[in-house]
Structures are given as C-alpha cells and as structure tokens.
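Sequence design from tokenized structure. All designs in this work follow the same two-part layout: the structure record, then the generated sequence. An example of the structure record is given first.
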C-alpha cells in the first residue's frame, strides 16, 4: 500500500508541476502582450503628424491596395489627395512613409545616401 500511495503522490506532484509551469508561461505571455499594447497606446509614432488615407484594416492595412492589380491607381489617388509625402499602413498596423517627390527622393537615394538606413531588400 505504501508503494501505491507514493506512486499516486508522485503522479500528483508531476501534474501539479506541469500545471504550475503552464500557468507561469501563460502569465508571462499575457504580461508581454499587455506591455506591447499599452506601449503602443501611450506612445506617439514618428509618422503621427503626416497625413494619409485612413487605415482600412488592422490586419493588412493598405497592403492589398499598394500591391494589388489597381496599385498604380491607388498610389496616384493618394498622391493627388494627400501630397507627395504620405503615411500608409502596412501589415499589423505598421506605419510607412511613401515619398513621391523627386527632389526628396534625390536627397534620400543619391545626395545623402549615407544618412538613411536601407534594409537588405531595399535594392532588390
């Protein structure tokens, strides 16, 4: 009987330990999620003051319009309505700067090229 009692106690300890770890992992994930949500809610983005079209979707933003079959029409309408420097939304609410001004593009790509950081896929 002592052996059965010890086996049951051991199984109970393993189950309790597993539940404790699972609860701890869920608590950490919830805390990280809440941190990023509150950080995003209470901080202003550098592009907050730049005009642009309203965000159509929190999930895909303007991705469908910017790269879809009518992309050129979208870019032309945005430039006509908001000017040559516009804020557009990407995937998951990320904000991006769209520049259509030739002089500004010359400064970014040619004249002051060492000031602006480019991603690895920028040239591709």
């Amino acid at each position: 009987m002592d052996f059965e009692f010890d086996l049951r106690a051991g199984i109970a300890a393993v189950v309790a330990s597993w539940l404790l770890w699972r609860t701890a992992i869920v608590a950490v994930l919830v805390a990280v999620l809440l941190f990023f949500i509150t950080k995003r809610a209470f901080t202003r983005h550098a592009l907050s003051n730049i005009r642009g079209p309203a965000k159509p979707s929190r999930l895909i933003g303007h991705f469908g319009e910017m790269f879809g079959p009518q992309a050129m029409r979208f870019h032309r309408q945005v430039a006509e309505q908001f000017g040559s420097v516009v804020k557009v939304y990407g995937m998951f609410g990320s904000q991006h700067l769209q520049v259509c001004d030739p002089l500004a593009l010359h400064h970014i790509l040619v004249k002051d090229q060492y000031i602006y950081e480019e991603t690895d896929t920028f040239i591709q």
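The chain has a mean pLDDT of 82. We note this feature because it recurs in several other targets discussed in the main text.
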